Amino acid sequence: MKSRIIGVVSGMFLLTVCSKGDRGSVQAAPAAPAAPEAQPAAATSNGSADGGTITGKIKFTGTAPRNPTIDMSEEAACKAKYKTGNPTEENVVAGPANALANVFVYVSAGLPANAKYQAPSAAVTLDQNGCRYHPHVLGIMVGQPFEIINSDPVLHNIKAIAKKNRPFNVSQPSAGMKTTRTFSTPEVMVNLECNVHGWMKAFLGVRTDPFYAVSGPDGSFSIKGLPPGTYTIEAWHEKFGTQTATVTVTGTESKTANFTFAAH
Length: 264
Fold this sequence. Notes:
By secondary structure, the chain is mostly beta strands.
Protein backbone atom coordinates (compact mmCIF):
# COMPACT_ATOMS: atom_id res chain seq x y z
CA MET A 1 0.00 0.00 0.00
CA LYS A 2 1.55 3.20 -1.13
CA SER A 3 0.51 6.53 0.30
CA ARG A 4 1.61 10.07 -0.16
CA ILE A 5 3.21 11.64 2.88
CA ILE A 6 2.81 15.22 3.92
CA GLY A 7 5.53 16.47 6.23
CA VAL A 8 4.96 19.36 8.58
CA VAL A 9 7.80 20.45 10.79
CA SER A 10 7.20 23.36 13.19
CA GLY A 11 9.70 25.66 14.86
CA MET A 12 11.90 28.60 13.93
CA PHE A 13 14.63 26.24 12.87
CA LEU A 14 12.76 24.82 9.86
CA LEU A 15 14.96 24.66 6.79
CA THR A 16 13.88 21.71 4.70
CA VAL A 17 11.36 18.87 4.77
CA CYS A 18 11.18 15.99 2.33
CA SER A 19 9.21 12.78 2.44
CA LYS A 20 8.57 9.46 0.78
CA GLY A 21 6.13 6.64 1.46
CA ASP A 22 3.22 4.45 0.36
CA ARG A 23 -0.18 5.20 -1.13
CA GLY A 24 -3.43 3.25 -0.89
CA SER A 25 -6.93 3.07 0.53
CA VAL A 26 -7.47 2.93 4.27
CA GLN A 27 -10.24 1.92 6.66
CA ALA A 28 -11.40 3.10 10.05
CA ALA A 29 -9.36 1.74 12.95
CA PRO A 30 -11.17 -0.71 15.28
CA ALA A 31 -11.45 -0.21 19.01
CA ALA A 32 -8.29 -1.30 20.79
CA PRO A 33 -8.58 -4.80 22.32
CA ALA A 34 -7.85 -5.46 25.97
CA ALA A 35 -4.31 -6.78 25.64
CA PRO A 36 -1.84 -7.79 28.36
CA GLU A 37 0.65 -5.08 27.51
CA ALA A 38 0.73 -1.30 27.72
CA GLN A 39 1.98 0.88 24.91
CA PRO A 40 5.68 1.72 25.29
CA ALA A 41 6.57 5.17 26.52
CA ALA A 42 8.52 7.44 24.23
CA ALA A 43 12.13 6.32 24.22
CA THR A 44 14.79 8.88 25.02
CA SER A 45 18.44 8.89 23.96
CA ASN A 46 21.26 8.78 26.49
CA GLY A 47 23.33 11.67 25.15
CA SER A 48 25.06 14.28 27.29
CA ALA A 49 22.83 16.30 29.62
CA ASP A 50 24.80 19.38 28.56
CA GLY A 51 23.71 19.14 24.93
CA GLY A 52 20.69 20.35 22.99
CA THR A 53 17.29 18.68 22.81
CA ILE A 54 14.89 18.00 19.97
CA THR A 55 11.33 17.18 20.96
CA GLY A 56 8.16 16.88 18.97
CA LYS A 57 4.90 15.11 18.29
CA ILE A 58 3.92 12.91 15.39
CA LYS A 59 0.41 12.55 14.03
CA PHE A 60 -1.41 11.64 10.84
CA THR A 61 -4.24 13.09 8.81
CA GLY A 62 -7.06 11.05 7.32
CA THR A 63 -8.39 7.72 8.58
CA ALA A 64 -6.12 5.11 10.09
CA PRO A 65 -5.98 1.74 8.32
CA ARG A 66 -7.81 -1.10 10.02
CA ASN A 67 -5.35 -3.32 11.85
CA PRO A 68 -6.03 -6.98 10.94
CA THR A 69 -7.53 -9.17 13.65
CA ILE A 70 -5.25 -11.98 14.83
CA ASP A 71 -6.70 -15.51 14.89
CA MET A 72 -5.26 -17.15 18.01
CA SER A 73 -7.74 -20.03 18.09
CA GLU A 74 -4.89 -22.54 17.89
CA GLU A 75 -2.91 -20.85 20.69
CA ALA A 76 -5.24 -20.99 23.71
CA ALA A 77 -2.45 -20.02 26.13
CA CYS A 78 -1.86 -16.78 24.25
CA LYS A 79 -5.52 -16.01 23.60
CA ALA A 80 -6.27 -16.35 27.32
CA LYS A 81 -4.06 -13.32 28.01
CA TYR A 82 -6.54 -11.04 26.23
CA LYS A 83 -9.52 -10.32 28.47
CA THR A 84 -12.00 -9.25 25.79
CA GLY A 85 -12.19 -9.38 22.02
CA ASN A 86 -9.49 -10.53 19.66
CA PRO A 87 -6.04 -8.93 19.51
CA THR A 88 -5.03 -7.06 16.38
CA GLU A 89 -1.80 -6.42 14.59
CA GLU A 90 -0.02 -3.11 15.30
CA ASN A 91 0.45 -1.68 11.81
CA VAL A 92 -0.90 1.72 12.87
CA VAL A 93 -1.22 2.54 16.57
CA ALA A 94 -3.25 5.73 16.87
CA GLY A 95 -3.72 7.81 20.00
CA PRO A 96 -5.93 10.81 20.81
CA ALA A 97 -6.12 13.50 18.10
CA ASN A 98 -4.57 11.12 15.55
CA ALA A 99 -1.32 10.86 17.49
CA LEU A 100 0.96 8.27 15.91
CA ALA A 101 2.91 5.83 18.07
CA ASN A 102 5.75 3.50 17.04
CA VAL A 103 7.60 5.98 14.85
CA PHE A 104 11.39 5.58 14.99
CA VAL A 105 13.00 9.04 15.03
CA TYR A 106 16.76 9.39 14.75
CA VAL A 107 19.65 11.60 13.63
CA SER A 108 20.52 10.33 10.17
CA ALA A 109 23.21 12.92 9.35
CA GLY A 110 25.16 15.78 10.92
CA LEU A 111 27.11 14.18 13.76
CA PRO A 112 30.92 14.62 13.64
CA ALA A 113 32.49 11.94 11.46
CA ASN A 114 35.02 11.02 14.15
CA ALA A 115 32.55 10.91 17.03
CA LYS A 116 32.53 7.69 19.08
CA TYR A 117 29.76 6.68 21.47
CA GLN A 118 29.90 3.96 24.10
CA ALA A 119 27.10 1.42 23.87
CA PRO A 120 25.24 0.87 27.16
CA SER A 121 25.91 -2.40 28.97
CA ALA A 122 22.21 -2.69 29.86
CA ALA A 123 20.32 -4.89 27.43
CA VAL A 124 17.45 -3.84 25.18
CA THR A 125 14.69 -6.42 25.74
CA LEU A 126 12.19 -7.88 23.30
CA ASP A 127 9.49 -9.96 24.99
CA GLN A 128 7.27 -12.56 23.34
CA ASN A 129 4.07 -12.32 25.36
CA GLY A 130 0.54 -13.15 24.27
CA CYS A 131 1.97 -14.30 20.94
CA ARG A 132 3.06 -10.77 20.09
CA TYR A 133 6.39 -8.95 20.28
CA HIS A 134 6.76 -6.20 22.89
CA PRO A 135 7.68 -3.51 22.11
CA HIS A 136 6.65 -3.34 18.47
CA VAL A 137 9.32 -0.76 17.53
CA LEU A 138 12.58 -0.29 19.40
CA GLY A 139 16.11 1.06 19.02
CA ILE A 140 19.53 -0.24 20.02
CA MET A 141 23.16 0.76 19.68
CA VAL A 142 25.82 -1.24 17.88
CA GLY A 143 27.36 -3.62 20.41
CA GLN A 144 24.57 -3.24 22.96
CA PRO A 145 23.07 -6.54 24.22
CA PHE A 146 19.75 -7.49 22.64
CA GLU A 147 17.86 -9.84 24.96
CA ILE A 148 15.01 -11.93 23.59
CA ILE A 149 12.58 -13.42 26.12
CA ASN A 150 9.78 -15.95 25.73
CA SER A 151 7.01 -15.29 28.28
CA ASP A 152 4.56 -17.73 26.65
CA PRO A 153 4.28 -21.48 27.30
CA VAL A 154 4.39 -22.11 23.55
CA LEU A 155 7.05 -22.45 20.87
CA HIS A 156 8.31 -19.13 19.54
CA ASN A 157 11.19 -18.17 17.35
CA ILE A 158 12.58 -14.83 16.32
CA LYS A 159 13.99 -14.29 12.86
CA ALA A 160 16.04 -11.16 12.22
CA ILE A 161 15.77 -10.21 8.55
CA ALA A 162 18.83 -7.98 8.33
CA LYS A 163 20.54 -6.63 5.22
CA LYS A 164 23.63 -5.03 6.78
CA ASN A 165 23.92 -7.18 9.89
CA ARG A 166 24.15 -10.93 10.12
CA PRO A 167 20.64 -12.45 10.09
CA PHE A 168 19.67 -14.95 12.76
CA ASN A 169 16.83 -17.30 13.62
CA VAL A 170 16.45 -18.28 17.28
CA SER A 171 14.03 -20.93 18.57
CA GLN A 172 12.57 -20.74 22.08
CA PRO A 173 10.22 -23.69 22.71
CA SER A 174 9.23 -22.92 26.32
CA ALA A 175 8.47 -20.08 28.71
CA GLY A 176 11.33 -18.39 30.52
CA MET A 177 13.91 -18.91 27.79
CA LYS A 178 16.30 -16.04 27.05
CA THR A 179 18.72 -15.42 24.21
CA THR A 180 21.15 -12.53 23.74
CA ARG A 181 22.50 -11.19 20.45
CA THR A 182 24.35 -8.05 19.33
CA PHE A 183 24.50 -6.05 16.10
CA SER A 184 27.73 -4.87 14.47
CA THR A 185 26.50 -2.34 11.89
CA PRO A 186 23.96 0.50 11.88
CA GLU A 187 20.74 -0.43 10.07
CA VAL A 188 17.29 1.17 9.89
CA MET A 189 15.28 -0.98 10.13
CA VAL A 190 15.85 -4.66 10.96
CA ASN A 191 12.61 -6.63 10.50
CA LEU A 192 11.87 -9.16 13.25
CA GLU A 193 9.44 -11.98 12.51
CA CYS A 194 8.31 -15.36 13.85
CA ASN A 195 8.16 -18.46 11.65
CA VAL A 196 5.60 -20.09 13.96
CA HIS A 197 3.16 -17.17 14.16
CA GLY A 198 3.07 -15.15 10.97
CA TRP A 199 1.40 -12.12 12.55
CA MET A 200 4.27 -11.53 14.98
CA LYS A 201 6.34 -8.62 13.70
CA ALA A 202 8.61 -6.00 15.24
CA PHE A 203 11.11 -3.47 13.92
CA LEU A 204 14.52 -2.60 15.31
CA GLY A 205 16.63 0.47 14.52
CA VAL A 206 20.38 -0.09 15.01
CA ARG A 207 22.54 3.02 15.50
CA THR A 208 26.16 3.84 16.35
CA ASP A 209 25.01 6.83 18.44
CA PRO A 210 22.38 7.28 21.18
CA PHE A 211 20.39 9.97 19.36
CA TYR A 212 17.14 8.20 18.59
CA ALA A 213 13.66 7.74 20.07
CA VAL A 214 10.36 5.95 19.50
CA SER A 215 7.15 7.98 19.61
CA GLY A 216 4.82 7.07 22.47
CA PRO A 217 1.02 6.69 22.59
CA ASP A 218 0.60 10.48 22.45
CA GLY A 219 2.94 10.74 19.46
CA SER A 220 5.69 12.47 21.44
CA PHE A 221 9.43 11.87 21.22
CA SER A 222 12.56 13.42 22.73
CA ILE A 223 16.21 13.26 21.65
CA LYS A 224 18.58 14.74 24.21
CA GLY A 225 22.26 15.54 24.60
CA LEU A 226 23.01 16.67 21.05
CA PRO A 227 26.24 18.62 20.53
CA PRO A 228 25.90 21.92 18.64
CA GLY A 229 25.32 21.37 14.95
CA THR A 230 22.90 21.06 12.06
CA TYR A 231 21.24 17.67 11.80
CA THR A 232 19.02 15.68 9.51
CA ILE A 233 16.25 14.10 11.56
CA GLU A 234 14.43 11.16 10.01
CA ALA A 235 11.07 9.79 11.16
CA TRP A 236 10.26 6.23 10.03
CA HIS A 237 6.90 4.46 10.14
CA GLU A 238 6.23 0.94 8.89
CA LYS A 239 3.16 1.91 6.83
CA PHE A 240 3.46 5.64 6.17
CA GLY A 241 7.12 5.70 5.11
CA THR A 242 9.68 8.32 6.12
CA GLN A 243 10.03 12.06 6.51
CA THR A 244 13.10 14.17 7.14
CA ALA A 245 13.76 17.61 8.57
CA THR A 246 16.85 19.76 9.02
CA VAL A 247 17.36 21.08 12.55
CA THR A 248 20.09 23.32 14.00
CA VAL A 249 20.79 23.27 17.74
CA THR A 250 23.27 25.31 19.75
CA GLY A 251 24.28 24.95 23.36
CA THR A 252 21.62 23.48 25.64
CA GLU A 253 18.63 24.90 23.81
CA SER A 254 15.55 22.88 22.93
CA LYS A 255 14.00 22.81 19.46
CA THR A 256 10.66 21.40 18.36
CA ALA A 257 10.14 19.17 15.32
CA ASN A 258 6.60 17.98 14.58
CA PHE A 259 5.85 15.51 11.79
CA THR A 260 2.50 14.82 10.12
CA PHE A 261 1.93 11.78 7.89
CA ALA A 262 -0.99 11.48 5.49
CA ALA A 263 -3.17 8.37 5.70
CA HIS A 264 -5.26 8.55 2.54
